[in-house]
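Field guide to reading this record: the first block holds the primary sequence, the second block holds the structure written as discrete tokens, and the final block holds curator observations. Each block starts with its own label. This record concerns Radial spokehead-like protein, catalogued under organism Kipferlia bialata.

BLOCK 1 — SEQUENCE
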Amino acid sequence: TKKEGDDEDEAPEEPALPDVIETGRMLSAVGEGVDEGEMARIFRSMRTFAMANPSAENLQFWGKVSTKTRPYYVIECTMAEYPEGEGE
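BLOCK 2 — STRUCTURE
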């Protein structure tokens, strides 16, 4: 958020992301295996994605799918704009 006297040349504003640590606590409370360290890594990945894709909005972590080989994380977002040639 810009404050009075801030320079316009500052780094881009941080994307609005959900509180994934709290989501992880809720999932752990109901027996799902997502600890705080794992949720912190998920948050960093979501932040990296949002910073690389400024038109990504409303990112939401839905959960983890465990498979024999590795876990998959389900994250949803909407795109305000699609890159040229996509989303048609």
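BLOCK 3 — OBSERVATIONS
Residues 20-79 form one domain.
The longest strand covers residues 56-66.
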